[in-house]
Amino acid sequence: MSPAILTHLTGWLQPASAAGAAALVLTVLLGNALLSMLCAILSHALLPRRLRIRTVRNIVALGALGSMLPLLGPLLVLFVGLIYPRLERGSHAPPPKIVRHPTYATEVRGHVSRFGAGGALARLRTARPYSDLGSRALLAIATRRSRDTTHLLRGALNHPDETLRLLAHNLLARREEAIIAQIGRLETLRRAQGLGAVQIILDLAELHLEFVYLGIVNGSLRQMHIDAAQQLIDSIGEPPVAAAWRTRLLIVRARLNQQQLPEAGAAQVTQDYQLAAAAGAAPARVLPWLLENAWRARDYSRLRDLLAQHPLYRHIPLIGPVAKLWGHAIDA
Amino acid sequence: MPETPLSDCDILLLLEGTYPYVKGGVSSWVHQLVSQLPHWRFGAVFLGSQEKDYAGMQYRLPANLTVLQTLYLFGEGSRPPVKPPRLPADTVARYTRLHESLRAGHAEALDFGSHLEAGDPFNEEAFLYSEPAWQYITECYEANATEPSFIDYFWTVRNLHRPIWALARATGTLPRARLFLSPSTGYAGLLGVLGAQAQRRPLVLMEHGIYTKERRVDLMNADWINDARNPLQSDPTEVSHLREMWIRFFEILGRLAYRHADPIISLFETARQQQIRDGAESTRTRIVPNGVDVERLARLRRADRAAPPAVICLLGRVVRIKDIKTFIRAAHALRQRLPGAQAWIVGPEDEDPEYSRECHELAQALGLGEAVRFFGFRGIEEILPEVGVLVLSSISEGLPLSILEGFAAGLPCVTTDVGACSELVYGRGDEDQALGTAGAVVGLADHEALAEACATLLENPDRYAQARQAAIRRVEAYYDQRQMIGVFDQLFSQRIGGEELR
After folding, report:
1. pTM of the entire predicted model
2. What is the ipTM of this complex?
């Protein structure tokens, strides 16, 4: 340490030169603050682009923090700037409001996981426009015909990336065309077989309900398909008790009620399904609907009861993972 | 304009699947351009798939369209005899270099004059039947292919190359021109690049849609590309290798055209940005919006305060990209609110007969009866005066002439939010937006919103009158064809004049 500095410090410690000491402290603090501010600006530049929000506020906050500790503060700010991007690599950008969660399934995971509807949703929400990620997400759910993937495709119709919009539209059209083609084939068969084709009528009613259940139609067309299913069922009339197709009719009726009745009618729908089960319908044909009803009503105790009655469901390949997931939700 | 005796025409148009054999927006634009510039001599080369896919001439050719050639890329042309040629020892290395250059967008690699000569490794006969070509394809398969069988891969490679030889042969017989103009990239763009290089002339690219983007979506959904992945091999997030090859092929064609064209024109800003993302140099891009004959169409306007008829009308081909089904569903929803409303579809139905049949069946299934009418192709002069609101339900558009024609005829428009439609309805820039809203914009495939917007306009005379006025003012101020024609006239003079001075 040079003698000049020692002299200066000695002078500073003496009360007589308090004014000079104050000036020196102020100078050091000011220099420290300026240095901190410079480091804060550098740190901000090091942040990933998606985290560079509220620029002025962040720089001022970092600068202020750094200025508290003489000399060490600015270095800490710089250090934070270097490691912060690495710490944040696994975090998630604020999702854009283009593709929203479906209202009936707000539990759908909001972070990237495997490619179910949740994973695809997360990718669509976070993908930058014109990157491949969005198209890959849509292609991944192309063959997963479900209500939530239809919702996702419909949401993607408003995506800013036109390629994604076109792809989503095409995939939706394919879903619709697949059902229309089946209806066309069944109508031909029905005409060929005459009035006795009860099973075909039930197939047709189920296909009309599938339009509604999968969310492929909405508005006035939704009601049109419900009416078409109703007319088909009415055309069959009341089944004899011994008829082999009676349980199936009861299930279709329950599905119809499920679409027609508002949420308040969940109890009625559950009763319909139970009636079908009591009439001898296989549990595999009834239970998924009951489980879904209970889940949509967020009636977890009912879910627990249903799964307890049929523990095998946890081991069936398609339903098992869902049953397990619900089981965890219940346990939690 | 002084004619050069050495040229067959001044401007050679390279038209892929459009004018004069197919009706549509691009064809209308070409016809308009040629007709309105009688002092230029135009030539045209029509590129099609196979002759049987086209019904015949759809337009009466203007007198200044002096040359018309047709080229079918997938026709039953003669194949070279199966006779393995003798090739130089470095053939495989040359194949590798050529493909690498193409991937990088260097069209100089495609010196087809020499490639067509006997003994050249890239000659069609050599690539189809020589041992080095087989060796090269096999090596590429082993090095790059992920899941397709070798047979699928081999035939895909051959099919990818097949149109290139057809285009290469056509390059030598192209009419001599002073400037090449292509309204798309793809095969037409490639022919433009090759022709312009061979004749040392400038190439102008005027994209109405973005060809590469459209092909990308088509190919992602194409059923004709075999995806042989089994469930264990298949990663659902990955596009299959063969699909990827086709997509990359068209991307390369796009980059080639962008690299050699000057200027690269688009219809609106979003399209220009897409071109830049696809490889166009921004300094060479520019925007020239479409325009219509406002003076002629103004004669179709109804009196200012006349009540609009409850007729919604879609002007366009009955094809999937126009999403006619959403329009029909909207008609169903509209009739719940306005029981007397009618929906008219005015446009040719022969391009996609299967889709056209589905549309008729949908109208029937919805019980719309006479409320939905399919007119086929009709002159707009007899249709537009009877229409209340023009509707566009497309899933992809550029800057649609049909909206501009409707505006000029005093019709507000309800449209999906595609291409420049939003700009047309709301205006671009403060000055344009101050003219008012000329209708409504709704989301894709949202028939309820479409019907709601139409009903709101038809039921509210004040709102209708405001939209109508905004439509008329906007088309008069910004989309008069004289402006568009003037820009192209000047551009042709500059590019041809500049080229001849060199």
Report:
1. 0.73
2. 0.74
